[in-house]
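User: Could you check the structure of this?
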Amino acid sequence: MHRQTPKAHCLQEYMNMGSTQAKPCCRCPSDKEIWRSEADLDFCEETLLTLARLYFESFARPESTCWINSLMLAQAHFGPDAGPVIGVRLLNALQAMRFARHSIFSFNSVECPTCSAVLTEHERRLMAVIKATRTGQSGKAQTELMMLCEGADITNPMIAFCDLAAALAEEESQWQGDAHETALF
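Assistant: Sure, the predicted structure tokens are below.
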């Protein structure tokens, strides 16, 4: 289980930022979509989904500063050392996937509380790739990535997602080492 200390508060604050200005919508999952609460994401994966959505918003609206918000949130959640590394590795993985795809990537905005509670089919598959690479399930990650990349070569995206998983594992092992060290004193 991933820590839910002040970092959990940072993510929750970020998720609520636009909610006072955004009007509630009537968004419900379609056949291939699921509620975020049904996605079985741990706190790290919840954060990565939000970071990815911010990057996607920057891709869709290049004039926005959402990519900066993504990096700031990564630093707030993963710390000043690991945060920027994880934020950039996620961006590299998303870019590798985007370059392999032929069609658009469907995502939901973080600004609408109702929309952000739904995972599109593409987001669901993206999170399955991240979860599978984090847990060493290479076959599952490759299958989901092939679907996301629409049958294109997945070599570069797979390398990029494995690099992301390595950075996440390093951050988690550092945190576990810190927790063990703290318990000793």
